[in-house]
Amino acid sequence: MFRDAIAVLTTMTLLFGIAALTISPVEARSPSLRDLYSGPPETWPRPVLAEGAVFTEFGVLPPVVHPPDNQASPAKVALGESLFNERRLSGSGQLACASCHSPELGFGDGLQTSFGHDRQRGTRNAQPLFVVGWMTSLFWDGRSSTLEEQAAAPLAHPMEMAARPEMIEARLNADPEYRQAFEAAFGPGRITIARVQQALATFERSLRPRRTKYDRALRQGAEVLSDEELLGLHLFRTKAGCASCHNGPLLSDQRFHNLGLTFYGRARQDLGRYDVTRRPADVGAFRTPSLRNIRRTGPYMHNGLLPDLDGVVNFYNGGAARPRPRPAQADDPLFPVTSPMLKPLGLTPSEREALMAFLETL
Fold first, then answer.
1. Do residues 20 and 123 both lie within one domain?
2. How many domains does the chain fold into?
3. What is the pLDDT of residue 22?
4. If you compute the radius of gyration of the chain from its CA atoms, what whole number of angstroms results?
5. Could you read off the pLDDT of 86-137 as tens digits, one per residue?
6. Residue 199 and residue 235 share a domain
7. How far apart (Å, rounded) are the C-alpha atoms in residues 1 and 349?
8. SS3 for 267?
9. Which of 86, 183, 302, 311 makes an SS bond possible with 286, Cβ 3.0 to 4.6 Å?
10. Is there a single domain that holds both residue 131 and residue 262?
11. Does position 30 have pLDDT exceeding 50, yes or no?
12. The domain boundary residue, chosen from 205, 229, 256
């Protein structure tokens, strides 16, 4: 199964000058490749990166850092979890944060794009919340820098929860149990929307991705991976180019890239990061999502366009999308350009299977 994959890998490593990674078909099933990945990630073979990539070595997740003005406590986490499931935070009294971020669905909703107030359909996929405590920016376009700030946006958005701050405060202050819970978490004082946001943020920082075979590989080395999964890890860091953007403990560089899925000038247009920065280079750029627990969090991409991981691998293998301007757009300075970091990969069927096998371990 691995003969064509190993042949391509051997050619690729020579082309990149990584003679130490040259392996034969026999060595793929022997300790040779395993020796390269037997230690901690900092001892693994250096990745092959696209020009412009900013790489951080793979590793275990560090402790979450709580902001000085919103330190965690068991009472605050419990309150935040209750609020996360509280329908009275929505204008209609029918939606909660958990409506789009269900624990049973990987803290997403399993839909291409989410439904909100009055069954209005949004334009973006609900992201999983496993690693939000480590993210330096929130939303697909990075418009919020803290979880406290992020929490306010869906509460008030007319297409999402459509609630006014004073409405939420009045409902919660009228509930003796919530008054008691807020006092336990924050001390005496009236329930305010700021405290609601802080409690939600504290609960979300308590979330963790499920432990996986990949986590064991980080701690124990490649011995926990099958031959196919190990080859997938090597491809992820070399020929497949995944590590150029998916790296570090989060398997995300937390940067913004254009994959060619902007639908510029069409009905499904989404300008991405440009709506935040107003920089032409950011048209169609979206933040790299974490791959932690990736198999549980489909569909994929900012618009949920790809329903499964097989489609994601094929999309990148083809070099992503490369829309061409229509005649009327020929001189449009905002016409988005797909990131030059993305190129056709030429992965063989067995290499794609190995890459998929590794992704399943995450």
1. no
2. 2
3. 38
4. 23
5. 999 999 999 999 999 999 998 999 999 999 999 999 999 999 999 999 999 9
6. no
7. 10
8. coil
9. 302
10. no
11. no
12. 205
Alpha-carbon gap, residue 340 to 338, rounded angstroms: 6
Q: 3-class DSSP state for residue 108?
A: strand
Tokens describing residue 193: 């929307």
Rounded distance, CA 217 to CA 224, Å? 6
* Chain center to CA of 92: 30
For 237, list phi and psi in degrees, rounded to 5. Answer: -90, -10
For residue range 280-289, list pLDDT tens digits in order. Answer: 999 999 999 9
Farthest-apart Cα atoms in the chain, separation: 71
How far apart are the C-alpha atoms of 243 and 54, rounded to whole Å? Answer: 9
Q: In this predicted structure, what is the pLDDT of residue 222? A: 85
Q: What is the CATH number of the domain that holds 176?
A: 1.10.760.10
pLDDT tens-place string over residues 306-359? 999 999 999 999 999 999 999 999 999 999 999 999 999 999 999 999 999 999
The residue type of 112 is Q
pTM: 0.89
| Same domain, residue pair 220 and 195 | no
Instruction: Please report how the helices 193-205 and 165-173 are oriented relative to each other, as an axis angle in degrees rounded to 10.
Output: 80
Mean pLDDT (the chain) is: 92
Give the domain extent around 325: 3-60+211-361
Whether residue 144 is contained in a domain is answered as yes
- Which tokens in the block code for residue 57? 């070595």
- Find the mean pLDDT for residues 49-59: 97
> What percent of the chain is predicted at pLDDT more than 90?
88
Q: In this predicted structure, what is the pLDDT of residue 221?
A: 85
Q: Are residues 169 and 224 in the same domain?
A: no
> Which of 178, 205, 232 is where one domain is finished?
205
Give a yes or no: residue 66 inside a domain.
Answer: no
Same domain, 230 and 159: no
Of how many residues is the chain composed? 362
Mark whether 267 and 310 lie in a shared domain. yes
Three-state DSSP class for residue 306: strand
Is residue 195 one of the residues assigned to a domain? yes
Alpha carbon distance 351, 217 (integer Å): 20
In a domain, 68, yes or no: no
Taking the CA atoms of residue 344, residue 348, residue 354 and residue 359 in that order, the dihedral angle to the nearest 10 degrees is 20
pLDDT at 25: 41
What DSSP string runs through 138-151?
BSTT--BSSHHHHH
Indicate whether 112 and 23 sit together in one domain: no
